[in-house]
Amino acid sequence: MGGVEVDPMRKLRPCTIRGVAYPSHAAAAAALGVTRQRVHQLAAQTPNGRKIRTGGKPVTIGDVTYLSTAEAAGALGVSYWVARYLVRSGTAAAARRGKRPPPGDASARPERPPTRNAVKLLRRLAGMLESSVWIRRLSPAHHCEIAKARHILQQQADLLAELERSSGDETGTGG
Fold this sequence. Notes:
Largest sheet: 2 strands, antiparallel
Order of helices and strands: EEHHEEHHHHHH
Number of strands: 4
């Protein structure tokens, strides 16, 4: 028997490669003299070399229905992930998640934000400016400017630390 052997358990899948229709991938492989894997790759391509978009499920954002999340993202001028969030925020999945309570007395914010982390950050930056190998390699003119910046950072850190201590003493919590 010449040509393509057909397994009775396999379904024949017709395919089109470069505008020529074949009854199956195996027949296309035999006719073109390539492997079935290459036939599968060629069948997945469109004539202009672009892959075929399968299109997603229709989605609705704000009373407007789009063919897919990607199309919604393009139409709204946002990223795919933002569009996906917008789609999900109106579904039952978003309702199942715990909603945030409205801001009230239970989650009262302090009058002033804590400054301890800012003090640590400023001191760390000042220390980095003092000990960096890369800064040591700069010209002496730059060293002067960096010393001024380090001095300003240290002053700011000291000022914030003093403010934190004084506000702690006023409230009776101790700093």
